[in-house]
Amino acid sequence: MAVSTYSTWADVFHQFPVDEIGNVDTKVGFVWTKSVGLLDSGDIGNVILKGWWGEGRPVPGSVISGVFQLATPGKRVELVWNRAEVEVAPGDPADEEEYVGRHFSSLRMQVHAFGLVTASGSGSFTITGKTYMVEDKIPFEIMFTTESEDTLPKVGTFAGGLGAITSLDGGVTARLQFIEDGIPHQPKLGMARKGPSASSKWSSAWNTKKKPASTASTGPGTNPSASASASTTGAMAPKATSSMLTTNNSYCVSSYRFLVFDVCEEGGTTTVTGRTITTKADSLDFRMRWTVEEAPIVGGIYSMCVWVGFDKDGLVFEMIDGRVELRPGEVETEEYMENQLFKQAWRVRSAGKVIESKARSFTLESRVNTANGVLTTITHYLVPNTKRWEKYKPVGMGEFIGARGSVETLQTVEGEPRLVVGLEELRNGVREVDTPTQAEGGKQGTTAKNAWTARSKAVSDGKKVAVTARADGATANGNEAGPSGSKVLTEEAFQLMMRKRNRDDNAAGDETEKRARVEDCG
């Protein structure tokens, strides 16, 4: 199997400050920008971004956030965007101090990639692949390093990795956080300058390890202490029919900004309930064990990289390597929501076994490791009826492939929950399948704003939908009396907060008290 843009990929989900911007000479409507990113060590690396941009293109000092594809031409690092998959942070970059304070991030750059293993030795392996960049197929090469003594992938096989970028000198090096290996296939061996003024505020803050003055703040209340203790309740046993599936050769992962609206502490374990929305404006609530030292805040918006799975109670996230960051600002305010919630769609990337394949859709089954045990994730991908995908050929049953897309809704089929995803990128299985690699991505429209206030769409049997957002005196299922002393961000308060964000005139005169930050689940 040859290395191509159909069989390999490399993604970076990040936000980049724009230093300089100019036109790509060879392609009308395309622009380049120079930027900087924070490395795992805390040092600063230089990158070049490219992509098509119509009206309202970014200006120096602004911030671009989203998914970028990576290439390493001539040992330098370049990233390309699909316009539907990135956005410019709101505000006026001319007011640099305020703008940087509002959109500053201390998250390190992270790369997720899949390619041909060209080197593998003690403590590292290297993969190579190709990325379609503007008008040409450009190679990439990434070295993943690890201190683990686990077996690394063999040269000549295809494998992948997720890791925090440690160096951009002469290519990309990353500290391995997850390895994708053991995929059934037939192997075939194949073979800057210093940041200028627009990034000075970012560089200075990173170098001094100080954040700008604008940080997340909240009203009265206390926060629970975080705990990393595990719980094994709720896990669903993997199907025997998919014995080849493992948490090494399959996964479902997402990087996005999520809203936390409930914090629960029980038995030394802190669990949060959060919310995301789909392109069809469905509100989906998830549970996640909190594993970092900084206590969670109700109403806080967090940048996170998570595994995505399902148990008998619904959607479950698992934090990856403590990659979580509270976005700065005053929580539960209209301005905070407007500045920190993404306008772009919530996306997932999954890899696994094809369990259903039709003319314009396919379904993947994956496994993810969580505190609740090994969970199963089903992702059902819809192939767009666009020119880019007109030559799509159905993937083979039983093949191990990968895909990425924007989540449209949640369905339950024969009692099993699945995410319905609009396909944006497809990584073929180990056999050649002549398919495109990218399509226009989903984006949240104006109706999506209301979805943050709507009742959550949880796992259902087709007759009723459970509500996981809580009101006073209610438990997680919304219909049983809970402890009278429980304190959470109630459904009514949440609705009010979001109506204010949507500038609902009818709610202009409403007021509500700040809610206490902790619920005692005992």
Automatic annotation (TrEMBL):
Region (Disordered): 185-234, 499-522
Organism: Tilletia controversa (dwarf bunt fungus)
UniProt name for this protein: Uncharacterized protein
Annotated Basic and acidic residues bias: 502-522
Composition-biased stretches (Polar residues): 197-207
Record field: compositional bias (Low complexity): 219-234
Tree of life domain: Eukaryota
